[in-house]
Amino acid sequence: MEYCETIHKTLKPGGLWVNIGPLLWHYADQPEEQQIELPWEEIEQLIPKMGFTFRKREWKKCYYTNRLNSMLNIEYNSIFFSCTKDISEDDEEKEEIGEEGEEEDEEIKDQSE
């Protein structure tokens, strides 16, 4: 679940994660790396535990290496989902401190003018 952890670290609180595609989160070009592909039912249970709230979930057909007149077309039954990163109490405290700092900056700016 490194993939989800990385997204959680990268997004700001309240940030939006949009995902579509097959759940092939692995190192395709790195066979020496340990890999595991979890089914959607397990990922669906883990994502909220990692600090996200689902907004939307639906299955979509996605095509890979598709050519109009080709006999070979690869179709994935993919999950589309969006979720937001939860806002923790620590995040709210940081936001309040940031707002106080902005107010102080404005006061200093006003005094210098």
Key phrases:
113 residues; Rossmann fold; 3 strands
Question: What does this protein look like?
Answer:
The chain has 113 residues and is α+β, with helices and mostly antiparallel strands. It has one domain: Rossmann fold, CATH 3.40.50. It has helices spanning 2-10, 40-49, 89-112; strands spanning 16-21, 52-64, 74-85. The protein has a 3-stranded antiparallel β-sheet with strand order 1-3-2, covered by helices on one side.
CATH class: Alpha Beta
The averaged pLDDT comes out at: 79
> Total number of β-strand segments?
3
The H/E string reads HEHEEH
Share of β-strand residues: 25-35%
Distance between the termini: 52 Å
Summarize the biggest pleated sheet. Answer: 3 strands, antiparallel
Structural class: alpha+beta
Sheet with most strands: strand arrangement = 1-3-2
Q: What is the tally of helical segments?
A: 3
CATH topology group: Rossmann fold
What is the domain tally? 1
User: C-alpha Rg, in Å?
Assistant: 21 Å
Q: What overall form do the CA principal axes indicate?
A: elongated
Task: Assign the CATH superfamily.
Answer: Vaccinia Virus protein VP39
Would you spell out the secondary-structure blueprint of this structure?
Layout: H1 2-10, E1 16-21, H2 40-49, E2 52-64, E3 74-85, H3 89-112
Antiparallel strand pairs: 1-3, 2-3
Offer a concise description of the structure.
With 113 residues, this protein is α+β, with helices and mostly antiparallel strands. 38% of the residues lie in helices and 27% in strands. The protein has a three-stranded antiparallel sheet, covered by helices on one side.
